[in-house]
């Protein structure tokens, strides 16, 4: 069953681009934007990740963490983050175990999908955005959701 709005976000621990283990529960108490993307340094993923980078201050102002997840290695993530000055954490989900745990879709049954989750400070999923080709929509919808959470 895919994770949906109202569900508690499943905890996980994955290596970051620096090789250090990162758990979702490490961020409990603050909102998290968790985005799954297909592959480092590809056109769509670069556009999406740079859109998160360009709005990173908006996320920080909202008290939120941004975390990107793909099946790429920590070394690949490190190069990708350095090349595009990505200021947030990228996690390596080798074998797509966490992607499967979340039920994040695949495109055309082959390519890992592009799905973003906005998780509140209690660990509850407040929004899910699933779009393979609306790269910037992931960022726009996450910001809208965080703003709604702040005013609620």
Number of domains: 1
Global shape: globular
* Unreliable residue stretches: none
Return the CATH architecture.
3-Layer(aba) Sandwich
Largest sheet: 5 strands, mixed
CATH class: Alpha Beta
CATH topology annotation = Glutaredoxin
> By CATH's scheme, which homologous superfamily applies?
Glutaredoxin
Q: What structural category arises from helix and sheet content?
A: alpha/beta
Mean pLDDT: 94
Task: Give the helices and strands as they follow along the chain.
Answer: EEEHHEHEHEEEEH
The percentage of residues in β strands lies in 15-25%
Number of strands: 9
| N- and C-termini, Cα separation | 28 Å
The helix content is 25-40%
Widest beta sheet: strand line-up:
5-4-3-8-9
Subcellular location: Thylakoid
EC number: 1.11.1.24
Keywords: Antioxidant, Disulfide bond, Oxidoreductase, Peroxidase, Redox-active center, Thylakoid, Transit peptide
Protein name: thioredoxin-dependent peroxiredoxin
Task: Itemize the secondary structure elements and their pairings.
Elements: E1 13-15, E2 21-23, E3 32-36, H1 43-54, H2 56-61, E4 65-70, H3 74-83, E5 89-92, H4 97-102, E6 106-107, E7 111-112, E8 115-119, E9 125-130, H5 135-151
Parallel strand pairs: 3-4, 4-5
Antiparallel strand pairs: 1-2, 3-8, 6-7, 8-9
Helix pairs in contact: 1-5
Keywords: Antioxidant, Disulfide bond, Oxidoreductase, Peroxidase, Redox-active center, Thylakoid, Transit peptide
Catalytic activity: a hydroperoxide + [thioredoxin]-dithiol = an alcohol + [thioredoxin]-disulfide + H2O
Subunit structure: Monomer.
């Amino acid at each position: 069953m895919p994770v949906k709005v109202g569900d508690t976000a499943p905890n996980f621990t994955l290596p970051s681009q620096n090789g250090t283990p990162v758990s979702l529960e490490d961020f409990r108490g603050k909102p998290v934007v968790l985005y799954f993307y297909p592959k480092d340094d590809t056109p769509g993923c670069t556009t999406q990740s740079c859109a998160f980078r360009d709005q990173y201050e908006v996320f920080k102002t909202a008290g939120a963490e941004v975390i990107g997840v793909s099946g790429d290695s920590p070394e690949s993530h490190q190069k990708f983050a350095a090349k595009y000055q990505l200021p947030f954490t990228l996690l390596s989900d080798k074998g797509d175990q966490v992607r499967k745990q979340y039920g994040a879709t695949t495109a055309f049954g082959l390519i890992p999908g592009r799905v973003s989750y906005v998780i509140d400070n209690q660990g509850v999923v407040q929004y899910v955005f699933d779009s393979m080709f609306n790269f910037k929509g992931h960022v726009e919808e996450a910001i809208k959701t965080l703003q709604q959470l702040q005013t609620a």
